[in-house]
Amino acid sequence: MSKAEVLLLDIVTIAICVYFLFGCASQPKSANIIRHQVTLEEIKEICYRSPHGILNNNIGCAYYTNSNGGTCNIYVPKQSEYDKLRSLSVSYSKANDISIELYILGHEVKHCFEGAWH
Questions:
Q1: Is the pTM of this model over 0.85?
Q2: Are 74 and 33 in contact (CB under 8 A)?
């Protein structure tokens, strides 16, 4: 990929994340969101409840502390794990740190507001 293509991918990724963050913020279920930065191995252990958990390829997850809402806990990889993530996934292989972080955070925040949307 050329530098221009990578830059365009970064801009599109950021735009999508901002769209989800502001779109979800307009009708919140809860204002309590806690981000936990953990290793990819810890994510496998924590995120087993996800519909995708059996595949062992989760890169994050979001769960409420109780079924009536409450605090939404988001589990995302530590920044030190991004290089490992790049080596595991073609989707992230050329993405910079901020693009990876915004994509995963935006995705998991959307789960806080919309539940199991995918």
A1: no
A2: yes
Report the alpha-carbon distance of residue 49 to residue 45 in Å, rounded.
9
Sign of the dihedral through C-alpha 97, 102, 107, 113: positive
Joined together, the tokens standing for residue 81 give 């794990």
- Whether the CB-CB separation of 1 and 86 falls below 8 Å is answered with no
Kindly give the confidence (pLDDT) of every residue in the chain, 118 residues in length, as a single tens digit, with 9 standing for 90 and above: 666 555 545 665 665 555 555 544 444 454 689 999 999 999 988 887 655 555 567 889 888 877 666 788 899 999 999 999 899 888 888 899 999 999 999 999 988 888 766 6
Read off the amino acid at residue 66: N
- Rounded Cα gap, residues 8 and 2, in angstroms: 10
- Cβ neighbours, 10 Å, residue 25: 11
Q: How far apart are CA 13 and CA 79, in angstroms?
A: 17
> Tokens for 100?
């990876």
Domain boundary assignment for the chain: 3-114
Q: How many CB atoms lie within 10 A of CB 95?
A: 20
